[in-house]
Amino acid sequence: MAREPYVIYNLRNTYHEPGQYEFKIVLDPRRFKNGHLSEVSCVNSDGKRMIMDVQKWGRKVNCSFNIDDSVPDGVSVLNMILKDDAGREVTGRATFWVIK
Length: 100
Prior knowledge:
The chain is mainly beta. Helix content is 0%, strand content 54%. The strands form two sheets. A four-stranded antiparallel beta sheet has the order 1-3-6-5, with no helix packed on it.
């Protein structure tokens, strides 16, 4: 089985309380020189896009988002389109629960 070309740090499986949360995506140095071409988005269980602050620093992509009363309970989906300098795309997906 092939290894993913990225690692996600600090993304919980479940979020129980309202607040601001952060996670980091670190790209594999053998595949990516930096993450400036990569895109990250998140949709909640209603299919609506969640507001997310994304900052890119070299091969690190730092993301922060808020969970408040407007975010419904259920599974949220993190979608990643990671692009290397040659423009080749790697797609990734992660999920997490929101249960307030």
